[in-house]
TrEMBL record:
It comes from Thalassobaculum fulvum. The keyword Signal applies. This is Lipoprotein. Residues 1-19 form the signal peptide. The keyword Signal applies. Keywords: Signal. It comes from the Bacteria.
């Protein structure tokens, strides 16, 4: 096998991977995907790991970045609380 087909395959894989990084769901999409999640495990299965994880004692806040803001899930122990949506913070 020559290097040219291998390089073409690697370039295609890199392009597809980069494209996936720039696509973000909307707040509504994230909320819909997680609407039946009541535990941390269910939330992780629905959305993956959070973009930001805030902790204060037994309370956690899982934050997911959306194309039009952020979606926050408060978690106490293993239970997911009511979802909160908001605007992206300015950097």
């Amino acid at each position: 096998m020559t290097a040219r087909p291998l390089l073409a395959a690697l370039a295609l894989a890199a392009t597809l991977a980069l494209g996936a990084c720039f696509h973000q769901d909307s707040k509504a999409d994230i909320v819909k995907k997680a609407e039946h999640a009541t535990t941390k495990d269910e939330l992780r299965k629905a959305l993956g790991d959070p973009d930001t994880l805030n902790k204060a004692g037994p309370l956690e806040e899982w934050v997911y970045e959306a194309s039009d803001g952020v979606v926050r899930f408060p978690i106490l122990g293993e239970r997911v609380g009511p979802v909160v949506t908001g605007e992206k913070t300015k950097k």
